[in-house]
Amino acid sequence: MVGRLFSSIENIALGGEKMRVGQKLVLFALLFFPFILACFWVFGVKTKVQEKRIVIFLKEEEKELVLREMRELLRSVNMILYGISTGDYDLAHRYAKSSGMDMVEKFSAVEKTLLLKLPDEFKKLGFATHKGFDEVAELIKSRENQKILSALAELTSKCVACHDIYSIQAEK
Ligand code: HEC
Fold first, then answer.
1. Of 95, 102, 107, 94, which is closest to residue 68 (Cα–Cα)?
2. What's the pLDDT tens digit per position in 5-31?
3. Taking the C-alpha atoms of 18, 22, 23 and 26 in order, what is their torsion angle to the nearest 10 degrees?
4. Which residues pair with 168 in a beta bridge?
5. Cα(71)–Cα(119) distance, rounded to whole angstroms?
6. pLDDT over 70 for what percent of the chain?
7. How far separated are the first and last CA of the chain, in Å rounded?
8. Which of 8, 40, 107, 170 is 20 to 30 A from residue 24's alpha carbon, by CA?
9. d(Cα 157, Cα 170) in Å, to the nearest integer?
10. Do residues 123 and 131 lie in contact, with contact meaning Cβ atoms separated by under 8 Å?
11. Nearest CA to ligand 1 atom 15
12. Position in ligand 1 atom list of the atom nearest CA 122
């Protein structure tokens, strides 16, 4: 079907003369390129970002600071899990402590204006998360994995909750 269609177009284009391979390719590309594009348009991957989160506007450097702290939290979770799984409870304890309330104190000592820009709910969830790390640190001393892991699950549900509600953008 496609072959017949193609050779009749070839006939129209050259009035019955034989086409060279190069010409054929060009004609083929011209004919089918829109068709392929249309396929992508109809069947291709489509995404739509539905931003339903509350956006917190911060200065570029403030945003970077908060995100750096976030990466530290993830590192702590990671190292706590490593520590527990290898029996290195000291390592797990150290990393749990490093993301506890001490982190907040250091942060608020230098970033008072930044703290004022954060919504109250955000700060509450944030503080609860840091307290959670201190609680995990205490439990790590008991070396009871089940208890430690359930506290860690409780703690990480706060990460998930906050990420569902808020995002951060740099002020223009
Ligand atoms: C109080 C709110 C809040 C809590 C609690 C919270 N986060 Fe976040 N986190 C954010 C926001 C807001 C962003 C930026 C997300 C965005 O703009 O899309 C973020 C971003 C991140 C990022 C990306 C960093 C980057 O460089 O882009 C990581 C990793 C992260 N968080 C880890 C964690 C972990 C792990 C926890 C829990 C132990 C946690 N966060 C708890 C609010 C929170």
1. 107
2. 555 555 555 555 666 776 666 665 666
3. 150
4. 56
5. 21
6. 72
7. 57
8. 40
9. 26
10. no
11. 167
12. 1
Q: Nearest to residue 74, comparing CAs of 58, 105, 95?
A: 95
What spacing in Å lies between the alpha carbon of 48 and ligand 1's midpoint?
A: 22
Q: Which of 159, 166, 105, 119 is nearest to 136 (CA)?
A: 159
Q: Whose CA is nearest to atom 28 of ligand 1?
A: 70
Cα of 80 to ligand 1 centre, how many Å? Answer: 18
Encoded tokens for 77: 């979770």
> 70 vs 112, which has greater pLDDT?
70
Domains of the chain: 2-43 (no CATH), 54-170 (1.20.120.10)
Diameter over CA atoms, the chain: 90
Atom of ligand 1 nearest to the CA of 73: 35
Ligand 1, closest atom to CA 55?
Answer: 17
pLDDT (tens digit per residue) in 136-150: 999 999 999 999 999
Does residue 38 sit in helix, strand or coil? helix
pLDDT at 112 (0 to 100): 86
Write out pLDDT tens, residues 57-84.
999 999 999 999 999 999 999 999 999 9
